[in-house]
Design brief:
30% of the residues lie in helices and 24% in strands. With 436 residues, it is of the alpha/beta class.
Length: 436
């Protein structure tokens, strides 16, 4: 593990040189003040072998989340020693049960570069991983527009649902019973078109805004996935009977803008919480640099059978779609990755906070739509669908056509995918009965 961690670290030292993310200064925080700080921050982990019960008299330990996972004194001492030795200021810390490490965010209080500090930390035998506190961003663009199968008054403006043949798909599945983890900004759960569709919400953003208006991106993504159908209000979600559980890791940069950022620490906490919650489908409509800590968490979840959907972005933004097992999704009319699945993602109508609606574009939209489609597939089958099976099914049933530039693109045919899945299940049951 140390060899892998050090290999990741050395690559980050090279790639991360000169990419020093700003962070907050006073009071210490790893979230909303990140972009305003004058001091860069790094994420460092130490091996954590916690006690599972209170130790002998005279020992101490801090309990995490009440689940019995304790911070070992040795990890705590190593963090304090590293802070003193390398003149770093501890901002926040957290024992990560999934990876058996103690994770610490340190601030560099002087004019040393991130690369210099990481190079020094890479030689410290107590450090298992060190990386920049990276920022990740949402992927949305802007506005304008566009035989009702629904009584929702804005359904006719949802041209993307027509392109995906969602009305026909809904006769087979509407996502009932599927729990979806949305790692994003917060969501306006009081929006009338989300009534009953938002499960529990957890925030990992320090000093996060409580005003619904600060939740534009998360609310838009939730609306695309689970907006209530046939409630005589607004729009129709792709999986209107699924439920979204919100893990708030990003914060909005400006009012009236979808632009939002997250960082390594907030995303790590959100990912671990999503794993602990038991959700089997996670939407990541964000992008950012390759990140060893986040990659380790996603990889651990993939091995447990969790399906991740990510927004395909520029090659420099390797997280999350470069991680094996993550389904990469791009906009149909801006396709650039031959391995990614494509979805209609231009001028797609969705929700805004405070009971509003608006059009949204971008690969964030494409990823959220794909998450809704996978919820329909998951809900319609009796058995677990692996990520590779989902991708194969969608590619086999996609419609191919050529754009003006003659590039052949694949458009997802949701109803065809559901029909094929339905047929396979029927044949499987028939064969099983015949065998008995």
């Amino acid at each position: 593990m140390r060899a892998i961690a050090h290999a990741c670290l050395l690559s980050l030292v090279i790639v991360g040189a000169g990419t020093e993310n700003s962070s907050a200064s006073s009071p210490p925080s790893v979230s909303s003040a990140q972009s305003e700080s004058q001091h860069p921050r790094v994420v460092v982990t130490f091996t954590n072998e916690p006690r599972q019960a209170p130790g002998p008299a005279g020992t101490t330990g801090r309990r995490y989340a009440g689940d019995g996972y304790l911070l070992a004194q040795s990890a705590h001492r190593q963090a304090k020693r590293v802070a003193a030795r390398y003149s770093l200021r501890e901002v926040a810390s957290w024992p990560i049960k999934t990876l058996a490490v103690h994770c610490v965010v340190f601030e560099i209080p002087d004019d040393r570069s991130v690369a210099v500090v990481l190079a020094a930390l890479s030689k410290d035998s107590s450090v298992t991983l060190a990386e920049p506190l990276a920022e990740f961003h949402t992927l949305s663009d802007a506005k304008p527009p566009g035989p009702a199968a629904y009584n929702d008054p804005l359904y006719d403006l949802q041209t993307s649902l027509t392109a995906l043949d969602i009305a026909a798909a809904h006769t087979r599945s509407q996502g009932a019973g599927v729990r979806i983890g949305l790692i994003d900004t917060g969501v306006d759960a009081q929006h009338p078109d989300l009534r009953g569709r938002i499960g529990h919400t957890q925030s990992f953003v320090d000093g996060h805004a409580t005003a619904a208006g600060a939740y534009r991106h998360g609310t838009a993504m939730a609306g695309l996935i689970v907006a209530v159908a046939n409630n005589h209000i607004g729009i129709v979600g792709i999986a209107p009977l699924a439920q979204v559980e919100v893990f708030e890791a990003c914060w909005q940069l400006k009012p009236d803008s979808d632009a939002a950022v997250c960082n390594t620490f907030t995303l790590a906490k959100a990912l671990a919480a999503a794993l602990d919650s038991g959700v089997q489908l996670v939407n990541l409509s964000i992008a950012g640099p390759a990140d060893p800590l986040l990659s380790a968490l996603v990889t651990a979840a993939v091995k447990r059978g969790v399906t991740f959907v990510g927004a395909a972005a520029d090659p420099v933004d390797a997280f999350p779609t470069s991680i094996p097992g993550v389904i990469a999704v791009q906009a149909l009319d801006h396709a650039f990755n031959s391995d990614a699945l494509s979805m209609p993602a231009t001028h797609v109508l969705t929700l805004r906070p405070d009971n509003q609606y608006d059009f949204e574009s971008g690969t964030s939209v494409a990823a959220a739509e794909m998450t809704g489609v996978i919820a329909l597939l998951t809900s319609s089958t009796d058995s677990h669908l692996t990520t590779s099976a989902i991708v194969a099914l969608l590619k086999e049933t996609s419609d191919t056509h050529s754009s003006a530039s003659t590039t052949t693109l694949s458009s997802i045919n949701v109803n065809a995918a559901l029909a094929k899945l339905e047929g396979e299940q029927h044949r499987g049951r028939t064969a099983s009965r015949a065998a008995h």
